[in-house]
UniProtKB/TrEMBL annotation:
Protein name per the record: Cytochrome oxidase
Alphabetical list of InterPro entries matching this protein: Cyt_c-like_dom (IPR009056), Cyt_c-like_dom_sf (IPR036909), Cytochrome_c550/c551-like (IPR051811), TPR-like_helical_dom_sf (IPR011990), TPR_rpt (IPR019734)
Species of provenance: Deinococcus koreensis
Species lineage: Bacteria, Thermotogati, Deinococcota, Deinococci, Deinococcales
Domain Cytochrome c: 269-341
PANTHER family reported in the protein's UniProt record: CYTOCHROME C-553-LIKE (PTHR37823), MENAQUINOL-CYTOCHROME C REDUCTASE CYTOCHROME B_C SUBUNIT (PTHR37823:SF4)
Amino acid sequence: MILSLLLLGLIVAVALWLVLEPLRRRVSADPDAPERERLHGERDRLYAELAALEDESRRPDLERRAALTLRALDGLPPAPGRAGGRRLAVVGVALAALLTGVGAVTFVPRWQLASLSSAEAADVQAVLSLPALRARAERTQANADYLAWGRAAFDSEQYDQAVSAYGEALKLDPRQPVALRRLGILLLTRGERSGQTVSDEDATQAALLIRTAAQLAPQEAESQLLLGFTLARFGQDAEALSALERYRTLEPTGRDADDLITALRARLQKSDPGQRVYAANCASCHGPAGGGGLGPSLRVSTLSRTALASVIRNGKGTMPAYPQLKEAELKALLDLLEGWQRAGR
């Protein structure tokens, strides 16, 4: 980032020199020189601030002040000087514009993206692509173009645009899982972004969209992730945990739901010591209710209590050993597993 700012500063400095050097060459005194120089300095400072701006909320004020400064400069009478100086100024302006344009579309973006992480660079590129994607979608009104616009808007957190894009896509085809679940989660969390409470009607509609997406694409990890978050929001903890465990099965490296999974397990297992031990040590592989996941189902197991205890203590195959379990914890876990076995017969 520092290198990109230095490069941008160099481009601005060269551009300003090309513009100001011809104007500096004058033959007679300029009575407006002090005011002209003050306005030039103010303009240059504002341009430099705009070029290095990071807080976009300040841009409108800086642009307004820059416009007022330029207007004041235009209101001054022309500075006395040689005609050749004015011609050189025109050439300087053209060269400065060319240099700045080349830098803006080549060197600066490349250095900026190179200084970011891959995720941050993807977000920047998504933001930069939004105007073109939106214009294309509104021009063609094609489903694929609406989805491309929605995806870029969603990934760059331009959620109002994402709602518009996915809404238009669903008008063309109402059975699109990505558009359904993302529009649903945006409706459900709209209150958090705006500081307002989501109405019961919007919440119900959002939940329906997300459930429909999960039914249409049960093997897509994002479907299960958003379904889990939605069910948890409605207090359906067991169903939410099941969906999030399914998400972890489909996306083993996904960490987006870890905190919620931990919280759900804690809420569900408060009263049962066996469930607490199972949730903490076994559920990530064997599923939240023992029905299987990365590991086999424990509800259809035919192992005796002694065999189960041996496998838990010593491990077997790809299953790790748990010698650290206390006797009371092991007993509570074995009681739970035996109960599942009896229920499955």
